[in-house]
UniProtKB/TrEMBL annotation:
Protein name: Acetyl-coenzyme A synthetase
Catalysed reaction, written as an equation: acetate + ATP + CoA = acetyl-CoA + AMP + diphosphate
AMP-binding enzyme C-terminal domain mapped to chain residues: 544-622
InterPro entries: Ac_CoA_lig, ACAS_N, AMP-bd_C, AMP-bd_C_sf, AMP-binding_CS, AMP-dep_synth/lig_dom, ANL_N_sf
Superkingdom, natural source: Eukaryota
Enzyme Commission number: 6.2.1.1
GO terms classed as biological process: acetyl-CoA biosynthetic process from acetate
Domain Acetyl-coenzyme A synthetase N-terminal: 38-94
Taxonomic lineage from the root: Eukaryota, Fungi, Fungi incertae sedis, Zoopagomycota, Kickxellomycotina
Organism name: Smittium simulii
Pfam family, one: AMP-binding
Keyword terms: ATP-binding, Ligase, Nucleotide-binding
PANTHER family xref list: ACETYL-COENZYME A SYNTHETASE, ACETYL-COENZYME A SYNTHETASE 1
Family membership: Belongs to the ATP-dependent AMP-binding enzyme family.
Record has Methyltransferase as a keyword: no
Length: 662
């Protein structure tokens, strides 16, 4: 395995935090206000994990029955358990306790797709809604441990549905409502979901998404589903199947009894989240209850310096892990206000996201480098015409952020008065692994900086597995010790969990990312080392896209690679060879793209699709993606060692072909 040079070009610029000169309220001090404090807490979290986590758990989460053991099991055995013996309820922690304490505090601000359609939901109102949905679930006969698939737009009702699942100990499986019927069906079947919650339609950037229609199509192949609860988002007429489909407004209005929370065991399953891996089959990562909640609440508090009274806007959809951890569970467990943003940052124009900050006095903004880069390209005027003086912390997630975008975020959006917090983590990790602490860490643009509490990173030589200690080393990034919010398994395939994460390198968790640690100990994440592409922070497997492409009968072979893209971080480039005797045509190209969209969803559409006569292979017939990546990136002069290529002449033809096509 080779680890390429970091793309972020480490700079020597240093940004020292100082909450007294930044926009910090006079009557408060940050949770962590110095690097020494961060270091002391980090050391304790590694050297005395029991003490550290017992304290965090008791500060952040209410257990109905106290736990007896903080942590047991090991990474290598893949049997980690946290807070055993404890009983708790997630919706109680995120809703009831605030509804009792501060009933009129705002839990959710809903910023609808069309500007001007905002509304607020207080904790008291949220509790009422969560209880009603839980009542509907009970009427469907759902019981603790059953799974509910959620295919919803980014509306407060989606968050309330997730919370209603946790209220009864049901496992939720949120599928991003941009995935195709085929992908949705695959996820419903794999998770054995009994109920689907969806909406008549969705709205995103002014476009209508036909959610119910997609669900209907998916359910043709999902016999396990007995009920579909349909939230009326637009009120459009949609076909309702008698006996199966239930109107949200009607069903909720019929609920008149309060549904109390069901206290579950710390290690009871909480949710499944599908993500892409190196093979064609998405992985259903299983997260459990107490560890996940403590992990997200702890990181939300310290990585963002969040406290009650704050307003966080995490632009990620609830269909992704960021939406789960930092739009719903982290903020609500801390009793703060979360903005659920249904639209996209540039709809109807480039000032939309900034208007959201201004209108709702957002204190914490959490978005992806792709959004930052594309909004930057639209020009500073879109930012400068809005009042962003409420912002205190601005954060980034999902992909490496290039220093230019980082500096723009810091100076133009944050007016050099807000720390930039680049948070590195994964669906598998549940919460932040490497991140700056806003008022403690001196930051370097493009570096995620230092490990979060409880995280002990190691950089390993990718080939020998040996740990590379000291400064200025690069290799694969692994984590040495378990942390509470790590996914416990891949649903139905614990062996895959073990081989992918726990046994790739001995005794450690393998992230799948390359990283560099510089002379000051800062971590720089350098992207995936497996066949996973990250487009706009969305993870996709090359194998999954290839298997959609070769379903087209004209196609003989295909190879998909990710190449660098100025805005989206990476973009998808597909190389395709056709069956003998067939000539490439626009029609074939269109039908291949249509197949990808229907198999996976529009997010997997390749930016480039190139027909070639032959794919470069080694003598054993393995496709040499490294070469394709170089050629597609315009680096045909840096192809390196070609001695393993079975037919070196094919490369010359390929280079000429790609040169014309791209
Ligand atoms: O490659 C890393 C990249 O996104 C991957 C995880 O993707 P996903 O599970 O979809 O979760 C995304 C949101 C947490 C990682 O393996 N990644 C995520 N955050 C960063 C990042 N790469 C660099 N810097 C980050 N801050």
């Amino acid at each position: 395995m080779t680890v390429e040079e970091p793309k972020q070009n480490p700079t020597h610029a240093l940004y020292k935090p100082n909450f007294r000169t930044e926009r910090y309220p006079k009557n408060r001090t940050p949770w962590i206000s110095s690097f020494e404090q961060y270091k002391a807490m980090h050391e304790q979290s590694i050297n005395e994990p029991d003490v550290f986590w017992r304290l965090r758990a008791s500060e952040l989460v209410e257990f109905n029955t106290p736990f007896h053991t903080v942590c047991s099991g090991s990474l290598s055995e893949g049997n980690v358990k946290w807070f055993e013996g404890g009983k708790l309820n997630i919706s109680y922690n995120c809703v009831d306790r605030w509804a009792e304490k501060t009933p009129d505090a705002v839990a959710i601000i809903y910023e609808a797709d069309q500007p001007g359609g905002a509304k607020s939901v207080t904790y008291k109102e949220l509790l009422d809604q969560v209880s009603r949905i839980a009542g509907v679930f009970k009427s469907f006969g759902l019981e603790k441990g059953d799974t509910v698939a959620i295919y919803m737009p980014m509306v407060p009702e989606a968050a309330a549905t997730m919370l209603a699942c946790t209220r009864l100990g049901l496992v939720h499986n949120v599928v991003f409502a941009g995935f195709s019927a085929h992908s949705l069906a695959e996820r419903i079947r794999d998770s054995n979901s009994k109920v689907v919650v969806t909406s008549d339609q969705g709205l995103r950037g002014g476009k209508i998404i036909h959610n119910k229609k997609i669900v209907d199509e998916a359910l043709l192949t999902c016999p396990s589903v007995t009920k579909v609860l349909v939230f009326e988002r637009t009120g459009a007429e949609v076909p309702m199947q008698q006996g199966r489909d239930v109107s949200w407004s009607k069903a909720l209005s019929e609920q008149n009894e309060f549904v109390p929370p069901v206290f579950v065991d710390s290690e009871d399953p909480m949710f499944i989240m599908y993500t892409s891996g190196s093979t064609g089959k998405p992985k259903g990562l299983l997260h459990t209850t107490a560890g996940y909640l403590v992990g997200v609440a702890m990181t939300a508090r310290y990585s963002f310096d969040l406290s009650s009274g704050d307003v966080i806007c995490s632009t990620a959809d609830v269909g992704w892990i960021t939406g789960h951890s930092y739009a719903v569970y982290g903020p609500l467990c801390l009793g703060v206000t979360t903005v659920i943003f249904e639209s996209i940052p540039n709809y109807p124009d480039g000032s939309r996201l900034w208007k959201v900050v201004e209108d709702h006095k957002v204190t914490h903004l959490y978005t992806a480098p792709t959004a930052i880069r594309s909004l930057r390209r639209l020009g500073d005027e879109f930012v400068n015409c809005t009042d962003l003086s409420s912002l205190r912390v601005i954060a980034s997630v999902g992909e490496p952020i290039n220093p230019e975008a980082w500096v723009w975020y810091k100076s133009v959006v944050g007016k050099d008065l807000c720390p930039v917090v680049d948070t590195y983590w994964q669906t598998e990790t549940g919460s932040h692994l490497i991140t700056a602490i806003p008022f403690a860490t001196t930051t370097k643009p493009g570096s995620a900086t230092f490990p979060m509490f409880g995280i002990e990173p190691a950089i390993l030589d990718p080939n020998t597995g040996e740990e590379l200690t000291g400064p200025n080393v690069k290799g694969v990034l692994c984590i040495k010790k378990p942390w509470p919010s790590i996914a416990r398994s891949i649903l139905g395939d614990h062996d895959r969990y073990l081989t992918t994460y726990m046994h790739a390198y001995k005794g450690v968790y393998f992230t799948g990312d390359a990283a560099m640690r510089d002379e000051d100990g800062y971590y720089w994440i350098n992207g995936r080392v497996d066949d996973v592409i990250n487009v706009s922070g969305h993870r996709m497997s090359t194998a999954e896209i290839e298997s959609a492409i070769i379903q087209n009968e004209s196609v003989a072979e295909s190879a998909v690679v990710g190449i660098e893209d100025e805005i989206t971080g990476q973009s998808i480039c597909a190389f395709v060879t056709l069956q003998a005797g067939l000539k490439e045509s626009d029609q074939i190209k269109k039908s291949i793209i249509a197949k990808i969209r229907s198999e996976i969803g529009p997010i997997a559409t390749p930016k480039n699709l190139v027909f070639v006569n032959e794919l470069p292979k080694n003598r054993f017939g393995k496709i040499l993606r490294r070469i394709l990546r170089k050629i597609a990136s315009g680096e045909s002069d840096q192809l390196g060692d070609l001695s393993t290529v079975a037919d070196p002449h094919s490369i010359t033809e390929l280079v000429a072909r790609v040169h014309i096509m791209l």
